[in-house]
Amino acid sequence: MDIRAQLSMSFNLDKCIGCHTCSVSCKNVWTSRQGAEYMWWNNVETKPGAGYPLTWEDQERYRGGWEVVGGTLRLKLIKDNKLRTLASIFFQPNLPTIDDYYEPFTYDYQNLFNAPAGDDQPTARPKSLITGEFMEKIVLGPNWDDDFGGSPLYATNDPNLKNLSDSQKECLTKFHKLFYFYVPRICNHCLNPACVAACPSGAIYKRGEDGIVLIDQNTCRAWRFCISACPYKKPFYNWATGKSEKCIFCYPRTETGQANACGHACTGRIRTVGALLYDAERIEETAKLSDDRIVEGLRSIILDPYDPKVIEAARNAGIEDNWIAAAQNSPAYNLFKRWRISLPTHPEFRTLAMNFYIPPLSPILHQVKADRGGLFDPESDGFFNELEKMRVPVKYLANLFAAGNESLVVESLKKQMAVRMWARMKRVGDISESEVKTALSQCGLTVLDAEGILRLNTLATFKERFVIPETHRETKTTIDPRTMYEKRGTIGFGFKKQEVIGRQW
Prior knowledge:
- The chain is α+β, with helices and mostly antiparallel strands.
- It has 2 domains: 1-91 and 146-471, Alpha-Beta Plaits (2-Layer Sandwich), CATH 3.30.70.20; 473-504, no CATH class.
- It has helices spanning 21-30, 59-62, 82-87, 98-101, 109-114, 166-173, 194-198, 225-229, 251-254, 261-265, 283-287, 294-301, 308-316, 321-328, 331-338, 394-401, 406-427, 433-443, 447-457, 462-465, 484-490, and strands at residues 3-12, 43-47, 66-69, 72-75, 105-107, 126-128, 181-185, 204-206, 213-215, 236-238, 243-245, 271-279, 343-344, 355-358, 499-500, 503-504.
- The strands form 7 sheets. It has a 4-stranded mixed sheet. The protein has a two-stranded antiparallel sheet with strand order 2-7. A two-stranded antiparallel sheet has the order 3-4.
- Helix 16 crosses helix 17.
């Protein structure tokens, strides 16, 4: 067992209102500079929709993530062999272009102020932030398909529509019937990051003490393999500096116990951050699992922080007690493993993403008669009898969050429905306690579980939602400050001693 620590963020998609406050706060803090104008380390996508960059989920085009070939885990980017891949190092056909993002622009505001008096209202023409030239028209933006703005035109390009029936697609793409939801996205800081494996210069590394994936700007040589290999398209190329950049999980904040900028600013309080303990020895075997088993495999390598054996092994691995305590109170652990409500996005990419999403419990199309007990019919075999009539088909959610495994999504939705039923019984009183307990038991939840889920998603305090232990790297006695930066870029997996070129770290 090789125990390491990981910070993880969870998103409750039922509470996201698509206000983009998170995106703006991240932009103001990290990417409001030359060369980073088009970068959105945090962006909020309307689903169904093409996303940002366009159709980033289509790995037949982008060749991101991993695949299992002959029992071996291999980057999809490596089509035939490594030599042929390196031969295209100066021209990668799988890279998204600026047209897949958008040409960043501003407006000629000075013309509004300085235009001479006349009969016509002055205008502010769009101007490219790359070339400085005026643009004929704006054809794309970071939130181009936001809300009803791009649907159904852009919704039909959503790769998650695969394998849906015509009637299900019609539910998602009919403009007047459309129910959309929002998916905030940041770097997933994966356990098996494709960007780390693909970088020829070794500039990208994953920190062992908190799992954050970073890019060493001094080592980066702008090969941009990280952009091609990442299936989530979260590394970006800075055209001004010639370096790649990505979300850093606000580590200057988290190292001192503060919440990420995006989570701190979130208006809907949809985000939680917590610590996880995982077994690094099982990463490869988990990534090789079939699509229908990979989520359960990911859950299995997340370790129980209350297990005495896990606690002892964590201490032996150099994990401090405040991190173990944070893992025990972690909302990420509760939502993903204990309550089994949250799910990773596109686990079939096999990067083992460490950010999790609670699927939205969308409105129900069919109006259930009162004599059937509403959504919950204790007389029927299927207590939750209306899931198939959701506006967002379960198959669509499964394609997005469970590699097509609908049972995982159904499990999450049933639990959410049962908790809502519990809350309605307490606050409205029009549902009997016996019905509620039946619903909870069928979902594998206890009353204490229902109370915990309800509190975390409604009345939780800031400290309950963000359980972030302090990490003071400067106090690590096993790190030589003179070589700390070198070690970060070389091993990137914690503080274990290794023999490197005849000297001991």
